[in-house]
């Protein structure tokens, strides 16, 4: 089948970018979106042009590296599918696909379709964990966890940190990502002791990063490759409000959102 | 070289306790004065970084991905073994040890495996405490399943995403230490050389993939946890970025590379569909618990599977191995799939595939139960192939999945370079010639959480570590060799892309050093690899510059190392004149086509030493002794 | 080397009101109060169908509340102000969160009402101001005389003008859309969501919004149709 890929090309954050259209004449419908880009890149290199930079690793929808907008939808039109598993059979012969990087102030642009998502790591750093050091915790079966509780925690824990939620949100909010971790850990009995601190600190970090606000419209869930439910955002709000009240006497600090290579370049 | 594995004397049950007690300790106040460099952030790297940070060391952790959470451990699906015996079905540490040694076809070190089985129990406790949402029963206790041919249910799992959940647990522990200031994380940074000073590993040269700048990082010890080298084959279940560069550069600085030819082929992957194929997708082995594997009895039978009547189907695993059936170990299942396809009975358009059929299980248990157990795997299959596995049997074919070989390490996980420790898939230690299902996650975490924190302390407390400055000649030599390597790749300006070379290399290694090998083929492969490598350095085209994000350049360096490693794999396979585990030499098989091991001549670890460019590497042998599990012919009949 | 990141916790974190979550909670609570007002006001207004005596008596009752009326008014004004300030600040922040927009952007999950909160709000505000000037202050009362105290007369006279009714109906449909999202969204913002209750709540929000809108616009329609005169 024939397709046209219209791709955002920009060498680096300082340069000007533009859309460039690449006609593709021999697209196999079984290919994934990324394999289609591989084929394009091979031909670009052979023509002496720079290949399109895009992020990818596992190519089975779990590492969360890949992701870009495909004609206005994060990860493309198939629900619960990352671009690495989006096969071309979902498009029609002659379609034009517009590929754009995630756009968010908190995901600084790097090159072509690659952005920097370290803000997500910093949100986890701020409290997305249970504070147990390696050693001898109690036996795994000492604290029973009901099947439904474990399942709900797992639903939230399935997040792959790809950033599609932020990309799709008209406000550029990271509520689904942050909520997913707060919910995963907050639902489990093991995570209860630091529930307040976790919510307060993670929300503080999310806000420090400059993400937008959540308007509860659900675009994020709609594009989420793991279909994380909107419930997790309510859980975040719940834990945050409770935590902000209970820990109102505490001064909360956040991590300065600076990446090391920005500093290295200065 | 005499290889001293430093295995503690005495009964195996007490070996690790004894070793721990004999180890020297670092004063808590002194720990923060020691900088440890951890390369890799998968299960082994992240768990090591977190645990060492918790102890008070100053840790620097490096990964080439944009975040430590992307490491390929995340893609492990099936589960993690632990000898908890929660199911009251006769499991024990000793049985897990026994199964692993036997499963590894008697090419693993007993003491290491015993310790692994001991630690398995602690891993589950640790991960539960971290909030890993393992599957639970209604009563709230942990659920188990049987996995990969084990006769007991000892596998713990979190849906089909166990690796993801365990990695996120370790990643979160790591981020906690980043927050505490104990660990500094260097994402998008790729190690390109090891700095060895006075025979000790004292640092690395790592390239910042955004700025393109190679930087020197000095430390008191270097820990490599960079995973396996399955991507030598180009098509594998590994992530596209998985590479051997860190361990290969360490090898070239003097670390020995053990059993490079021990690679594992996973039997249940989605078959290749075309030339553009960039990777192979694994379907968890757990599918074999309920799926039945078959091919048509007739060669070239192109009928749709539902039109092939029961008596014209060959359930070849059930036929040949009545007691294990579809649950035979991975190497056996893979080899048999290849055999039936070679006979012309393969299914699908390419003829390289066998059916994995759930219709009986669905009839017996109902579609809902099957959906509950494998729903996400079925969805994934359907997403990729556009076929509904609830209605049509899945098509599967073996693919390269895991590499048992890796850098040689002693019982303390130290390589032959003092101060260079190697964890997880990157080392060779625990799986022998074949890894059992749900054991990789166990090993990565055992190494990172429960072994390295002890052994690194022992090294630091018992070693004189001189101050090293950035201007030391060894440091500068490493740095300039890295810079020269990058320049060289960029300056060839030939015609062919990195991927075209990589694909060709992969094909050679897969054909001749894949599921079955023979001397003539291996010799041929070595010649082909050398010729192709020659062309690589003449005709490679790497566009762009070395001063910014350049994914072609990253790949070019990794593929250059795959060429050399691929050759070593063939050499090792050629030297090992026996069949064992994943290494099947056609010359050495029983009359009914099973692997024939040669314990008299090959009961050793083959540890190869680098002897300079173009020279034949030197083979060192660590003899293996089996005091507890006596070598026997593996039989799954 | 590239490790020159200033200490890990260099920034003082945003407090409750500075955080997006805090502002959304304030919007939820103020929204809930305003929602209660909208219901109460509707119930009062519907007395128009009982004739002039009943409605004017209700008007007098409200006026005789004295200080209490001003307290209620004060609370409502405070809610409106907080609701608006939070919205405007979040809107400004959200604009900054995506400095470079998309060439193509499609919505996959959200409804029209969800996405139109930003402009249904200001139009409803403009309407409320107009409405107060028309029926409370009486400064705008086109084509007839405003009689203080004679609520019934003012309603009928006001709505007899077609464009006043049209503007009223248009604004209340927007209010309905605003409520359709707001009624369930406020629960989400204060952290109440349940896999079983939330879908019911979303359905209920739709019907409550329709009922409220229908209730309000029944008055101008009845006036225009001549059923209330």
Task: Enumerate how many helices of chain A there are, as a single number.
Answer: 9
CATH class of the largest domain in chain A, named Mainly Alpha
Spatial strand order of the main sheet of chain A:
2-1-5-3-4
- Write the CATH fold name of one domain in chain B: Flavocytochrome C3, Chain A, domain 1
Class of secondary structure makeup of chain A: alpha+beta
CATH architecture descriptor name of the largest domain in chain A: Orthogonal Bundle
Brief summary of the model shown:
The complex is a heterotrimer of chains A (266), B (637) and C (229). Chain A has 266 residues and is of the alpha+beta class.
Which key phrases capture this entry?
heterotrimer; A: 266 residues; alpha+beta; Ubiquitin-like (UB roll); Fumarate Reductase Iron-sulfur Protein, Chain B, domain 2; 2 domains; 5-stranded mixed sheet; two-stranded antiparallel ribbon; 8 strands; elongated; B: 637 residues; Flavocytochrome C3, Chain A, domain 1; Methane Monooxygenase Hydroxylase, Chain G, domain 1; 5-stranded parallel sheet; 5-stranded antiparallel sheet; globular
Structure in words:
The complex is a heterotrimer of chains A (266), B (637) and C (229). Chain A is built from 9 helices and 8 strands. Chain A is α+β, with helices and mostly antiparallel strands and 266 residues long. Chain A folds into 2 domains: 98 residues, Beta-grasp domain (Ubiquitin-like (UB roll), Roll); 115 residues, Fumarate Reductase Iron-sulfur Protein, Chain B, domain 2. In chain A, the strands form 2 sheets. A 5-stranded mixed beta sheet of chain A has the order 2-1-5-3-4. Chain A has a two-stranded antiparallel sheet with strand order 6-7. The radius of gyration of chain A is 20 Å and the shape is elongated. Chain B is of the alpha+beta class and 637 residues long. Chain B contains 17 helices and 19 strands. In chain B, the strands form 5 sheets. In chain B, strands 5-2-1-9-17 form a 5-stranded parallel beta sheet. In chain B, helix 10 packs antiparallel against helix 11. Chain C is mostly helical and 229 residues long. Chain C is built from 8 helices and 1 strand; from the N terminus they run E-H-H-H-H-H-H-H-H. The chains are: A alpha+beta (266), B alpha+beta (637), C mainly alpha (229). Chains in contact: A-B, A-C, B-C. The interface between A and B is large, with 87 and 87 residues. Strand 8 of chain A pairs antiparallel with strand 1 of chain C, so a sheet runs across the interface.
């Amino acid at each position: 089948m024939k397709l046209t890929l219209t791709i955002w090309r920009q060498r680096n954050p300082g340069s000007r970018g533009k859309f460039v259209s690449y006609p593709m004449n021999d697209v196999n419908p079984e290919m994934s979106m990324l394999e289609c880009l591989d084929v394009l890149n091979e031909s670009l290199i052979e023509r002496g042009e720079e290949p399109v930079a895009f992020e990818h690793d596992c190519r089975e929808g779990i590492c969360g590296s890949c992701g870009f907008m495909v004609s206005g939808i994060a990860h493309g039109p198939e629900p619960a599918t990352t671009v690495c598993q989006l096969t071309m059979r979902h498009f029609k012969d002659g379609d034009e696909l517009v590929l754009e990087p995630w756009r968010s102030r908190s995901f600084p642009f790097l090159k072509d379709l690659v952005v920097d998502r370290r803000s997500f790591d910093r949100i986890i750093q701020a409290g997305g964990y249970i504070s147990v050091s390696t050693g001898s915790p109690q036996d795994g079966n000492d604290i029973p966890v009901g099947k439904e509780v474990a399942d709900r925690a797992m639903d939230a824990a399935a997040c792959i940190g790809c950033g599609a939620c932020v990309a799709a949100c008209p406000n550029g909010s990271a509520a689904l990502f942050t909520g997913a971790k707060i919910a995963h850990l907050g639902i489990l009995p093991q995570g209860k002791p630091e529930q307040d601190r976790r919510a307060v600190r993670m929300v503080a970090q999310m806000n420090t990063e400059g993400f937008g606000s959540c308007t509860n419209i659900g675009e994020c869930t709609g594009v989420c490759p793991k279909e994380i439910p909107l419930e997790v955002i309510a859980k975040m709000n719940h834990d945050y409000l409770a935590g902000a009240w209970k820990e109102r006497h505490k001064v909360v600090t956040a991590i300065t959102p600076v990446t090391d290579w920005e500093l290295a370049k200065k | 070289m005499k290889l001293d594995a430093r295995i503690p004397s005495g009964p195996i049950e007490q070996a690790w306790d004894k070793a721990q007690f004999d180890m020297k300790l670092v004063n808590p106040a002194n720990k923060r004065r020691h900088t440890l460099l951890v390369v890799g952030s998968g299960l082994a790297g992240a768990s090591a970084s977190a645990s060492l940070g918790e102890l008070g060391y100053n840790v620097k952790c490096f990964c080439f991905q944009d975040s430590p959470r992307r490491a390929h451990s995340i893609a492990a699906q099936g589960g993690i073994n632990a000898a908890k015996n929660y199911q009251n079905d006769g499991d024990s540490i000793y049985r897990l040890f026994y199964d692993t040694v036997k499963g590894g076809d008697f090419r693993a070190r007993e003491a290491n495996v015993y310790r692994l089985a001991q630690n398995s129990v602690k891993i589950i406790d640790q991960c539960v405490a971290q909030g890993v949402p393992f599957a639970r029963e209604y009563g709230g206790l942990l659920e188990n399943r049987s996995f990969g041919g084990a006769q007991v249910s000892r596998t713990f799992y979190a849906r089909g995403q166990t690796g993801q959940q365990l990695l996120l647990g370790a990643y979160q522990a790591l981020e906690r230490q980043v927050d505490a200031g104990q660990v500094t994380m260097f994402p998008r940074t790729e190690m390109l050389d090891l700095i060895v000073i006075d025979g000790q590993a004292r640092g690395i040269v790592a390239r910042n993939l955004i700025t393109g700048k190679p930087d020197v990082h000095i430390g008191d010890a270097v820990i490599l946890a960079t995973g396996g080298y399955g991507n030598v084959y180009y098509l594998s279940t590994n992530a596209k970025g998985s590479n051997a560069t860190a361990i290969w550069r360490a090898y070239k600085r003097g670390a020995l590379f053990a059993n490079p030819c021990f690679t594992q082929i996973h039997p249940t992957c989605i078959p290749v569909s075309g030339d553009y194929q960039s990777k192979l997708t694994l379907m968890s082995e757990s599918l074999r618990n309920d799926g039945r594997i078959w091919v048509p009895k007739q060669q070239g039978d192109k009928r749709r599977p539902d039109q092939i009547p029961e008596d014209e189907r060959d359930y070849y695993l059930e036929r040949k191995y009545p007691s294990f059936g579809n649950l035979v170990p991975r190497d056996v299942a893979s080899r048999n799939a290849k055999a039936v396809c070679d006979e012309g009975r393969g299914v699908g358009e390419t003829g390289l595939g066998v059916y994995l059929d759930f219709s009986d299980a669905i009839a017996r248990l109902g579609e809902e139960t099957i959906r509950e157990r494998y729903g996400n795997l079925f969805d994934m299959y359907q997403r990729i192939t556009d076929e509904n596995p609830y209605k049509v049997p899945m098509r599967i074919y073996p693919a390269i999945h895991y590499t048992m070989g890796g850098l040689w390490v002693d019982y303390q996980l130290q390589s032959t370079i003092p101060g260079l420790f190697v964890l997880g898939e990157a080392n060779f230690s625990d799986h022998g010639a074949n890894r059992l299902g749900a054991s990789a996650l166990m090993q990565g975490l055992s190494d990172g959480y429960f072994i390295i924190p002890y052994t690194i302390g022992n090294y630091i407390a018992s070693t004189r570590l001189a101050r090293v400055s950035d201007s030391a000649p060894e440091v500068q030599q490493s740095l300039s060799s890295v810079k020269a390597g990058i320049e060289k790749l960029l300056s060839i300006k030939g015609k062919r892309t990195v991927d075209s070379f990589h694909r060709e290399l992969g094909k050679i290694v897969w054909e001749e050093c894949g599921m079955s090998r023979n001397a003539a083929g291996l010799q041929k492969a070595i010649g082909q690899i050398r010729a192709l490598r020659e062309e690589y350095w003449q005709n490679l085209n790497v566009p762009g510059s070395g001063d910014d994000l350049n994914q072609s350049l990253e790949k070019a360096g990794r593929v250059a190392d795959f060429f050399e490693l691929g050759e070593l794999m063939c050499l090792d396979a050629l030297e090992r004149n026996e069949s064992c585990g994943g290494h099947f030499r056609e010359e050495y098989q029983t009359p009914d086509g099973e692997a024939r091991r040669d314990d008299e001549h090959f009961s050793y670890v083959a540890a190869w030493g680098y002897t300079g460019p173009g020279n034949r590497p030197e083979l060192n042998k660590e003899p293996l002794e089996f005091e507890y599990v006596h070598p026997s012919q593996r039989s799954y009949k | 080397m590239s490790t020159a990141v200033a200490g890990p916790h260099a920034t003082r974190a945003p407090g409750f009101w500075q955080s997006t979550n805090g502002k959304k909670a304030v919007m939820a609570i103020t929204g809930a109060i305003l929602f209660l007002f909208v219901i109460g006001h509707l119930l009062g207004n519907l007395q128009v169908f009982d004739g002039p005596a009943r409605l004017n008596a209700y008007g007098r009752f409200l006026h005789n509340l004295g200080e209490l009326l001003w307290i209620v008014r004060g609370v409502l004004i405070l809610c409106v102000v907080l609701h608006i300030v939070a919205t405007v600040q979040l809107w400004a922040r959200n604009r900054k969160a995506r400095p470079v927009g998309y060439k193509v952007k499609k919505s996959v999950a959200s409804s029209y009402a969800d996405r139109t909160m930003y402009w249904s709000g200001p139009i409803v505000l403009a309407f409320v101001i107009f409405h107060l000037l028309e029926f409370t202050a009486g400064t705008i009362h086109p084509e007839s005389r405003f009689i203080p105290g004679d609520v019934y007369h003012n309603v009928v006279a006001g709505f007899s003008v077609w464009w006043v009714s049209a503007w009223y109906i248009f604004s209340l449909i927007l209010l309905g859309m605003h409520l359709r999202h707001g009624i369930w969204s406020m629960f989400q913002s204060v952290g109440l969501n349940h896999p079983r209750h939330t879908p019911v709540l979303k359905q209920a929000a739709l019907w409550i919004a329709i009922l409220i809108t229908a209730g309000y616009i029944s008055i101008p329609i009845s006036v225009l149709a001549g059923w209330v005169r």
